[in-house]
Amino acid sequence: MIRLIEAAPPLLDLVRPARSTSAGEQSSCCRVESPREGGEEGGCRGARWEGSELGPPSCFGLNAGGSGPGGVMKLLTGAGSLSRRFYSLKAAPKVKAPAAPAGVQLHPQELEFTKLPNGLVIASLENYAPASRIGVFIKAGSRYEDSSNLGTSHLLRLASNLTTKGASSFRITRGIEAVGGKLSVTTTRENMAYTVECLRDDVDTVMEYLLNVTTAPEFRRWEVADLQPQLKIDKAVAFQNPQTGIIENLHAAAYRNALANSLYCPDYRIGKITSDQLHHFVQNNFTSTRMALVGLGVNHAVLKQVAAQFLNFRGGPGTSGVKTQYRGAEIRNQNGDSLVHAAIVAEGAANGSAEANAFSVLQHVLGAGPHVKRGSSTTSKLHQAIAKGANQPFDVIKAAYNQVKAISQGNLSEGDVTIAKNKLKAGYLMLMETSEGLLDEIGSQALASGSYEAPTAVLQQIDAVATAEVVNAAKKFVSGKKSMAASGNLGNTPFVDEL
Q1: Which terminus of the chain has fewer CB atoms gathered within 10 Å of its CB, N or C?
Q2: Which regions are flagged for Basic and acidic residues bias (predicted)?
């Protein structure tokens, strides 16, 4: 079965420490589920296809047998062989990974990182887990769409199980099911990630389908036409959560272009995206220089061989994209909801900079949300400030804004900063404990900077943030040009120029 999970994270990625990007650029991608990406400020987590049921959206805002184009790939070593030949690829012998003898001590391994001459980045880590996870990360988010192909990335992430040159839609679905594997596609405004997960002995099987989906899609016209109605359903389900609409409107209000593009297809484009447009988008964005192949529980040498043979099919820089321009505006959606949802943001810092780390600490000073189920985060400064306000939207939003203003005036103790740093480091390390979070972090860094910073280096950067830097981050928010999105019964909700 295929399932769709939607997620819409925030404009400013203050949840995790910043990753490095090119100089002067700001991050536009925020990973609430697990990753994030280089580029420009802002960002949202998108949607993904997985196994069988619909998952709830989540977001955070500053608001109070198949074969690939090369056929069958074998990543394991040993004896045995496939009984069949696939599309343009010589079958490799299938073998099982030898089990470690009882009592053998397994030593922690270091991440192996390689950048091929064609620009493709390969990273792997042996974590000794019973399940392996492999991801192909591509700079192909919605920011690379233009006015003529809006919504293409949305349809593309829903098309992960369509027929390819080496496997039918049916074979992809049943083949992954047969080994208990999982194929998921996640998109943000910056990147697209195709991820497979399976037991170690079945890596070769699911790798075939991963290569097919990423390098040899056919986008048959009748299959694309049948998929179009799913865009409307997908969007309707996502927007059942009011916060999804707030985050999408917030990007549209904050930016003039690129990052203003929604993760979801505009209504007027549903039914109009063609097979040719999908092919054109893939040809211009799925190039070697815009890709990273990351594996956990996979041999690095074999992963390099796979990349050199089967991901070296399309060279060139691909779509360059336009530089995002922050403008600052407001979008209000008056409706009959009993609650008002509102988010206010200002332009942040370049991802990977010391200032971005200061914003991350500031977020945890204010309150990054509860870390336990049904927690209320009563210790956060924002929660305490809002609790003192009335129940009217004007008072609540004003109280939250005034709390940030108080910090910008220097009302911040060293103890508060130390506690915030510890929370930030704990959150980051807990994220890296999961294979999903680790894979996403490695892939995001690989695309953003072509390198990888170990968690120890990230923790040192967090510890280096001074109290004065946190105060300056609050000052930048208070003095910066604001963007605002609000929905609900807005009769008592302030406009952005009233704050």
Answers
A1: N
A2: 33-48
Could you tell me if residue 201 is left (phi over 0), alpha (psi between -120 and 50 degrees) or otherwise beta?
A: alpha
CATH 3.30.2350.10 applies to domain 330-498: no
How confident is the model over 387-436, as pLDDT tens digits?
776 667 778 888 889 999 999 999 999 999 999 999 999 999 999 999 99
Structure tokens at 195: 């991820």
The one-letter amino acid at 293 = L
The rounded distance, in Å, linking the Cα atoms of 123 and 107 is 19
Q: Which amino acid is residue 280, in one-letter code?
A: H
**Cβ burial 93-124 (10 Å sphere, 16+ → b, else e):** ebbeeeeeeeeeeeeeeebbbbebebbbbbbb
pLDDT of residue 287: 93
Neighbours of 230 (CB within 10 A): 16
Same fold, 3-94+121-310 and 330-498: yes
Question: For residues 137 and 292, is the Cβ–Cβ distance under 8 A?
Answer: yes
Q: What is each CA distance from 339 to 6, 243, 247, in whole angstroms? A: 22, 11, 16
Q: In what order do the strands lie in the sheet with 182-188?
A: 3-6, 45-50, 182-188, 192-199, 131-138, 291-296, 121-125, 112-115
3-state class of 436 per DSSP?
A: helix
> Hey, which of 136-140, 317-321, 493-497 has the most confident mean pLDDT?
136-140
In terms of pLDDT, which residue wins out, 56 or 470? 470
How sure is the predictor about 292, in pLDDT bands with cuts at 50, 70 and 90?
Answer: very high
Domains of the chain, residue spans: 3-94+121-310, 330-498
Q: Give 75's pLDDT tier (boundaries 50, 70, 90).
A: very low
pLDDT of 497 above 70: yes
Cα 486 to its chain centre, rounded Å, is 24
Distance CA 366, CA 195 (A): 34
